[in-house]
Amino acid sequence: MWQKLMIFLARSEKLKIFFQSRRQLHQLATRFVGGQNKNEAIKTVINLMNEKIYTSLFYLGEYEKDMIVINKTIHSLQQMSKLLSQNNLDIHISVDPTQVGLQIDKSKCYKNLVTIGKKIKENQLKQLDTSKKSFLMLDMEDSSVYKETLNFYNKLKEKEIPTAITLQAYLYQTEEDLKNIIKSNSAVRLVKGAFAENKTIAFKSKEDIDKAYRKLATLMLSDEAKKSKFYPIFATHDDKIIDYINKQANTMGWKKNEYEFEMLFGVRVNYQKELVNNGYKLRLYLPYGKDWWPYAIRRVGEKPQNIKYLFRN
Ligand SMILES: Cc1cc2nc3c(=O)[nH]c(=O)nc-3n(C[C@H](O)[C@H](O)[C@H](O)COP(=O)(O)OP(=O)(O)OC[C@H]3O[C@@H](n4cnc5c(N)ncnc54)[C@H](O)[C@@H]3O)c2cc1C
């Protein structure tokens, strides 16, 4: 019920306009968002890099049907990839397929992903340091767009565009797809899953989802994954799971810089610092842009205590 309420709040256009126009809600916005424009965002990226924290940039917006907004998103991400390259940073950009046209037309959406991906590749080639982890990272949205997102990923890889994909541990289907992806030189970001899915396709209890996450994480750290130069990305704030992953990685001979953790900007900040101080590689999902309400209210959905940032104002 809580999850559904939060999804409703995130998708209501009227509420979005109402809340985004309230200056008093600045604290909620800045807690989870890296800046209102690309220049503010790049400052945040550089500040985080000074603390040895990597980032994945996300231009705010989702389930978009307006071509003007979609073109603005593509333009901003292209400019961002140039800025990151000029500052000698990883060009790691996260995109929701529905923010670049999936709800309008599949082939248009694919073309838009190619445009962003090609720009990342072009700017990556300009950098001297080739060891950087630069990717167009496809976020995974609700199950209605799962197959199409996977299809885009495969086609982008065929085109030799540096692409990675997010997979959700709660979906039964994930294990089979992950096993196939692991066989190739690729990268997967594993998350628990954030949408209210039906029990016919997804695990529902925290216990089952955590169990699935551990199982999939073990596959991502297997000998087969290592041999194929697979790059594991574990996107979770769950310290018990992170401890499990680190032990498993150590047992399987993975060095600390051969896999990474990814968390959300503004979530469990002290724990983030602790991981970095212990020598682990950490990346933060860093949203930027003016359309912050749907994103911020989702963070409240994940952790009801975050509602304090709303009420404090
Ligand atoms: C980098 C990144 C990318 C993601 N991309 C996707 C995606 O493409 N598709 C998708 O479906 N989901 C995505 N998610 C969301 C993910 O599926 C989970 O919903 C979310 O990460 C919470 O799960 P958890 O693994 O942190 O574990 P949980 O068991 O939910 O939480 C573990 C611990 O972290 C704390 N915590 C978790 N969230 C918050 C928060 N918002 N504020 C404060 N504390 C918190 C909890 O209280 C708990 O102590 C992404 C998450 C991350 C970190």
Could you characterize the architecture of this molecule?
This protein has 313 residues and is of the alpha/beta class. It has a single domain (34-291), classed as TIM Barrel (Alpha-Beta Barrel), CATH 3.20.20. The protein is built from 14 helices and eight strands. Strands 1-2-3-4-5-6-7-8 form an eight-stranded parallel barrel, surrounded by seven helices. Strand 1 (54-59), helix 5 and strand 2 form a beta-alpha-beta unit. Helix 1 runs antiparallel to helix 13. The radius of gyration is 18 Å and the shape is globular. Bound molecules: flavin-adenine dinucleotide (FAD). Residues 139-140, 166, 168, 191-195, 235-238, 262-264, 267-268, 285, 299, 302-303, 306 line the site of flavin-adenine dinucleotide (FAD). The site of flavin-adenine dinucleotide has 23 residues, from strand 4, strand 7 and helix 13.
Quick recap:
50% of the residues lie in helices and 13% in strands. With 313 residues, the chain is α/β, with parallel strands linked by helices.
SSE layout:
Elements: H1 2-11, H2 13-20, H3 26-32, H4 38-50, E1 54-59, H5 67-86, E2 92-95, H6 106-125, E3 135-138, H7 146-158, E4 163-168, H8 174-182, E5 187-191, H9 206-220, H10 223-227, E6 231-235, H11 239-251, E7 260-264, H12 269-277, E8 282-288, H13 293-302, H14 308-311
Parallel strand pairs: 1-2, 1-8, 2-3, 3-4, 4-5, 5-6, 6-7, 7-8
Helix pairs in contact: 1-13, 5-6, 9-11
The protein binds flavin-adenine dinucleotide.
